[in-house]
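Table S2 (continued). Query chain:
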Amino acid sequence: QVQLVESGGGLVQPGGSLRLSCAASGSIFRLNAMGWYRQAPGKQRELVAVIGGSTNYADSAKGRFTISRDNAKNTVYLQMNSLKPEDTAVYYCYLAVHVLNPLRSLEVWGQGTLVTVSS
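Corresponding output:
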């Protein structure tokens, strides 16, 4: 099927930066959308940013986070700047894709990577 491998999480001080990466592999026919969601303790999972035909950001991410993708590598990135303690969460990679054998659409989630913003 399709596998996602996330990397780049960790501990950072307020005001710092991190870059998350998510690489997809498998029987991919077409990548439709890639994005990032996050879930803080005691809260629901929420959209951070998604890139497909267009790019959309959560209000909390606008101006600080930048999502990009490398289609040749089937990889999506999230550059996070000016990080705040409230950005602390598990960040999940999301993929909407068409796969082969048989041809069908799938939604795939990564295992999550922890981002902690603290002094």
